């Protein structure tokens, strides 16, 4: 079975922890290899030639979580990586994370990226996730990956219309 490719950023360690546990779940329970790039640790841009899923925690400037403060900070390098050589065209979706205490700001950055780049917002998880999140998110990733692969194979184009 083809591997799951992940592009993500982790600043506080929560997303990196989640990706580590998700990788272990994929490898032990699904027997699927995971390849991942943390853009904080590997900031040099490369062209991604295989389909991938992105993970993005919400780091926003100021605000009260309800009606202001929606300016992304600290994670913009992931957007730059997606723009590099049109990497976003091979992204079949994004998964957001954050702290639900921040109300509307929870996972907001990932929702903004989905709109900006034209790929699906798949789902989200809080902080480091829970044991229930790993199979749920693995299922979602495989579903979106398979849909993306099917659309690109059948139509010969990247499905996000760009």
UniProtKB/TrEMBL annotation:
SUPFAM superfamilies, sorted: Flavoproteins (SSF52218)
Organism field: Periweissella beninensis
NCBIfam families reported for this sequence: PRK02551.1 (NF002714)
InterPro entries for this protein: Flavoprotein-like_sf (IPR029039), RNR_NrdI (IPR004465)
Xref: PANTHER family: PROTEIN NRDI
Domain of life: Bacteria
Protein's name in the database: Class Ib ribonucleoside-diphosphate reductase assembly flavoprotein NrdI
């Amino acid at each position: 079975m083809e591997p799951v490719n992940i592009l993500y950023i982790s600043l506080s360690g929560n997303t990196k922890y989640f990706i580590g546990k998700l990788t272990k779940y994929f490898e032990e329970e699904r027997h699927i290899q995971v390849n991942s790039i943390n853009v904080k640790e590997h900031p040099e841009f490369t062209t991604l030639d295989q389909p991938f899923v992105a993970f993005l925690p919400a780091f926003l400037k100021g605000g009260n979580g309800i009606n202001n403060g929606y300016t992304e900070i600290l994670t913009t390098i992931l957007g730059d990586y997606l723009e590099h050589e049109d990497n976003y065209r091979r992204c079949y979706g994004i998964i957001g994370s954050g702290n639900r205490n921040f109300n509307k700001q929870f996972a907001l950055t990932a929702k903004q990226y989905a709109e900006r780049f034209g790929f699906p917002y798949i789902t989200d998880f809080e902080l480091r996730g829970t044991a229930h999140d790993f199979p749920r998110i693995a299922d979602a990733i495989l579903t979106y990956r398979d849909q993306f692969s099917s659309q690109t194979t059948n139509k010969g184009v990247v499905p996000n219309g760009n």
